[in-house]
Amino acid sequence: MLQYLVFALIAAVGLLSALAVVVWPNLIHCVLWLALLLLDTAAAYVVLDAPFLGAIQVMLYAGGVVTLMLFAIMLTRRKGGVAVKNESDPARRWTALGLASGLFGLMAWAILTTPGLADAREQPQAQARELARAFLGEHVLSFEVLSILLLAATVGAIVIARRRDFVGSDPPNVAQGGKS
Amino acid sequence: MTITGYLLLGAALFCLGIYGVLTRRTAIGILLSIEVMANAVNINLVSFARYSGSAATELFAVFVMALTVAEVVVGLALVILVYRALSHTNLDEAQRLRH
């Protein structure tokens, strides 16, 4: 009984905060709603017997990604006022709503009609020790590839966002010149 | 508690993320919606791990986390680049990127 209650709470908070993330007009508030969603997901991981993943989630996402997003929003504010209008026209919104709910209907149908899914029993989840063994044993190649990917992403981000001209020039000139 | 509830929750979050990607106009709004979608996938993966008991499934969730962080970092760098070039991040109007 209690676990249904906990699941209902997690699902309600998750759905509401996700809805707020995608429709809230103010982007800063969106990021804060996203932080709530990420913490809610961490709670779901803990309930699903994966506390290690929950800890990673809190540290990496709620700590790192949210801060990064806030920095990016602050850096890309339009000077002297609110940023650009964030809402699309109604036609596009209705099309998107139709597509998204259609996809949800399809996925819900697939989930509900798959035989044997409801009979699945909970198994003991792999904890940090088994996870580390799997990571550095059987899956060590993918671990290394992942670290190279992260390194490449870091270097790539620095190269992309680097300021190419250090003497003051207007931002539009950078775009038009291309070689400044 | 069966796995169905968690899968339905993941599907609903994923579709909300898709709605956000399709309707948002600023680049950061789209990145936020992509975060929502990645989280939905991760909830799916962890619940599958819970009901199958294999460590590899949980590893996939860690992979998804790392990939999402890499994507966010590169995406935000691109956003800052676009802002520096156009002074806004409205992707509908960012057609000068074609040149």
For the secondary structure, the number of strands of chain A is: 0
Please report the first level of CATH classification, the CATH class of chain B: Mainly Alpha
What proportion of the residues of chain B form beta strands (DSSP E)?
under 5%
> In DSSP terms, counting alpha (H) and pi (I) runs of 4 or more, how many helices of chain B?
3
Radius of gyration of chain A: 22 Å
How confident is the prediction overall: mean pLDDT of chain A? 83
CATH topology of chain B: Helix Hairpins
Written overview of the protein:
The complex is a heterodimer of chains A (180) and B (99). Chain A is an all-alpha fold and 180 residues long. Chain A is 72% helix and 0% strand. The longest helix of chain A has 25 residues, at 51-75. The radius of gyration of chain A is 22 Å and the shape is globular. The model of chain A is unreliable at 173-180 (pLDDT under 50). Chain B has a single domain (3-98), classed as Helix Hairpins (Orthogonal Bundle). Chain B has three helices and no strands. Chain B starts with a helix and ends in a 13-residue tail after the last helix. With 99 residues, chain B is mainly α. Chain B has helices at residues 3-23, 27-52, 55-86. In chain B, helix 2 packs antiparallel against helix 3 (55-86).
SSE layout:
The complex is a heterodimer of chains A (about 180) and B (about 100).
Chain A (H helix, E strand, L loop, with lengths): L1 H22 L3 H21 L3 H25 L14 H24 L14 H9 L3 H22 L9 H7 L3
Helix pairs in contact in A: 1-2, 2-3
Chain B lengths: L2 H21 L3 H26 L2 H32 L13
Helix pairs in contact in B: 1-2, 2-3
